[in-house]
Design goal:
The radius of gyration is 21 Å and the shape is globular. The chain has helices spanning 4-12, 90-99, 121-136, 143-158, 165-172, 217-232, 242-247, 254-278, 282-298, 305-316, 342-355, and strands at residues 18-29, 39-55, 60-65, 73-76, 105-111, 177-182, 188-192, 200-206, 321-324, 332-338, 362-365, 373-377. The chain folds into two domains: 4-191 and 369-377, Ribosomal Protein S5, domain 2 (2-Layer Sandwich), CATH 3.30.230.10; 193-365, GHMP kinase, C-terminal domain (Alpha-Beta Plaits, 2-Layer Sandwich), CATH 3.30.70.890. It is an alpha+beta fold. The longest helix has 25 residues, at 254-278. Helix 2 (90-99) runs parallel beside helix 3 (121-136), helix 2 (90-99) crosses helix 4 (143-158) and helix 3 (121-136) crosses helix 5 (165-172). The strands form two sheets. Strands 1, 2, 3, 4, 5, 6, 7 and 12 form an eight-stranded mixed β-sheet that branches. A four-stranded antiparallel β-sheet has the order 9-10-8-11. A hairpin with a 7-residue loop joins strand 9 and strand 10. Bound molecules: alpha-D-galactopyranose. Residues 27, 31-32, 34-35, 162-163, 165-166, 326-327 line the site of alpha-D-galactopyranose.
C-alpha cells in the first residue's frame, strides 16, 4: 500500500480510522446490456483506489487526494446534495449522500486506476469510499446494497446515467475469476478466468482517446433501448428473441432495430462465453470478442477510429480476438493474444497508431483481481 497513512496524518493531523481499497475493471464481454437487465462478464483489475477516512466531531466533510497535490475541499454535510457543483470530489460526496452519512469526516484518496481509460476509475473511487464508510459506521449494507447505492450516487448526484456493472464488479469480484453478473437481481457466479495457464495474455490497450459518459451518446443509446421496450410492450430487452425482433421490425425505427439487435446478440454471446471459458476454449472466446466488437461498432455505433485501429492492428498481429470495452467513444480495447507475442503486438498497435497520427496508446496487462476490501482499521 502507498504512504496514504503518512500523508493523511500530514493533511489532517491524526491517523485515519479506516482504509479501504477498490479496483477498476475490464469487461470481458457483455457491453451496453447492464441497463437492459442483461448478464455481463467483467473482472476486476489489479489497479485500485484507496480511501482513508477519519470521523470528525462536527458536520464538516474535508476531502483531499494524493493525485491533486493534497488540496483540501471542504463542505458542510448539510450542503452535500445533488446539484452541488464540483469536480472529482462529487463522486465521494455522492456516496456520502447516498449512504446517508450523518457525521463529519476527513477523507484522503489515493487513486491508482488510470483516469479516462475506460477502466472505471470512477466506480473504484465510489466503491472504496462506500466500503470504508459501510464498515466505519457499521451500516450493514450488503454488497448488492452498496452496488445500488454507489450507482445511485453516480446517477443522481454526479448525473451520469451509468448502469450497475462497474460498481458491482468493483465490489464483488474474486481474484482469478470473471464475474457473471445478472444485472436484474445482482446474483453472481464466479467463472474461472485463467488465460496464463494456456500461454495467453489479455492485453489492455488504452487508446488515449477520451470518452465521457456525460456527452449524450451513452444516454441516447439507453433511450433507444427503452423506446424499443416501450414499443414492444416487454419488461426489458432480455425478454426479446432475435425472431421476435425480426417480426417486430416494422414497429421500430432502423436505429432502434440495430440497437436492439446488438443487445439481443450480446446477451447470447455472454452465455456462450461462459460455456467456452468453462472448457478453456480460448479460440472460441476470441471469436466471440470479435463478434462483440463488430456489433458495438456497426449496430450500437459506440466505437471510434482509435478503438477500431487497436482491434484491427491486434488481429492483424495474430490476436485470437479483440474488442472495445466499456462505454466506448474512446477508452480501452482488449486483445487476447499469445503471451509470447506481447512485444510484437504492442509494436504493431503502436505503429498502426503512429501511421494514423493518433496519440500514442498505453498498454497494461492484469490478472483478474479481488474486489473492494477494508485493508486497515485504526
Ligand atoms: C459504462 C457504464 C456501465 C456500462 C458500460 C457499457 O462503463 O458505466 O454501466 O453500461 O459503460 O457496457
Amino acid at each position: 500500500m502507498p504512504d496514504i497513512d503518512k500523508r493523511f496524518v500530514q493533511a489532517f493531523g491524526a491517523a485515519p480510522d479506516i482504509i479501504a481499497a477498490a479496483p477498476g475493471r475490464v469487461n470481458l464481454i457483455g457491453e451496453h446490456i447492464d441497463y437492459s437487465d442483461g448478464f455481463v462478464l467483467p473482472f476486476a483489475i489489479k489497479d485500485r483506489t484507496f480511501a482513508a477516512i477519519r470521523v470528525r466531531n462536527d458536520r464538516k466533510v474535508r476531502i483531499t487526494s494524493m493525485q491533486r497535490r493534497n488540496k483540501v475541499v471542504e463542505q458542510n454535510l448539510d450542503a452535500i446534495k445533488p446539484g452541488l457543483k464540483g469536480e472529482w470530489e462529487r463522486y465521494p460526496f455522492g456516496v456520502i449522500w447516498s449512504l446517508g452519512i450523518t457525521s463529519g469526516i476527513d477523507i484522503m484518496i489515493d487513486g491508482h486506476v488510470p483516469l479516462g481509460a475506460g477502466l472505471s476509475s470512477s466506480a473504484a473511487l465510489e466503491c472504496c469510499v462506500a466500503t470504508a464508510l459501510n464498515h466505519l459506521f457499521s451500516l450493514g449494507n450488503s454488497l448488492e446494497d452498496l452496488a445500488r447505492l454507489t450507482q445511485r450516487a453516480e446517477n443522481e448526484y454526479v448525473g451520469v446515467p451509468c448502469g450497475i456493472m462497474d460498481q458491482s464488479v468493483s465490489l464483488m469480484a474474486h481474484s482469478g475469476s470473471a464475474l457473471l453478473l445478472d444485472c436484474r437481481d445482482l446474483s453472481t457466479r464466479h467463472i474461472a478466468f485463467d488465460v496464463a495457464s494456456s500461454g495467453l495474455e489479455l492485453l489492455i490497450i488504452d487508446t488515449q482517446a477520451h470518452h465521457s459518459l456525460t456527452d449524450g451518446g451513452y444516454a441516447e443509446r439507453r433511450a433507444s433501448c427503452e423506446s424499443v421496450v416501450a414499443k414492444l410492450g416487454i419488461p426489458s430487452l432480455r425478454e426479446l428473441s432475435l425472431n421476435q425482433l425480426a417480426s417486430s421490425r416494422g414497429m421500430l425505427t432502423e436505429t432502434e432495430f440495430m440497437r436492439a439487435r446488438h443487445a439481443v446478440t450480446e446477451m447470447k454471446r455472454v452465455m456462450d462465453a461462459v460455456e467456452v471459458l468453462e472448457k478453456k476454449d480460448f479460440a472460441s472466446l476470441g471469436l466471440l470478442l470479435n463478434q462483440s466488437h463488430a456489433s458495438l461498432r456497426d449496430d450500437y455505433n459506440v466505437s471510434c477510429p482509435e478503438l477500431n485501429c487497436a482491434v484491427d492492428a491486434s488481429l492483424a498481429a495474430g490476436a485470437l480476438g479483440a474488442r472495445m470495452v466499456g462505454g466506448g467513444f474512446g477508452g480501452s480495447a482488449i486483445a487476447l493474444i499469445n503471451a509470447s507475442h506481447t512485444t510484437q503486438t504492442i509494436a504493431a498497435v503502436e505503429k498502426a497508431f503512429a501511421d494514423k497520427r493518433f496519440k500514442a496508446p498505453r498498454f497494461f496487462t492484469s490478472l483478474p483481481s479481488q474486489g473492494a476490501e477494508v485493508i486497515q482499521r485504526g
